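Bench notes, afternoon.
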Amino acid sequence: MGSAPKPPPSICGLGTVTGFGWGNKHLWDGLVTSEPAAVLHPGFAEQFGRDEIWLATIPDEESPSDGPSKFSRSLHAAAREAIEDAHGRGWRPGGTVGVIHAFVLSEVQLWRDFYVER
């Protein structure tokens, strides 16, 4: 006799840090405005071949106790929010837990400062 089939994976909680702000509410509120989180930023001609690029920056709302950089603080904040969201929906930790993490050009302004301005 084989074991019972495993249920399909599901998303139980969501935590976000985006150009719209820190947290799911900022993401959803930003999406319904139909306005982009990204705006044109000057000063990138040397790196990208044109002076302005579209860039969604993350506002300074983080907790300093979550790490030394905005990137690490955003990971902690998003993970904490996702776990709280999942618990609020009835999720309880089990034998298998997965995390999906995505980012694009994290801290691009800090990299520019490091390589160009220093």
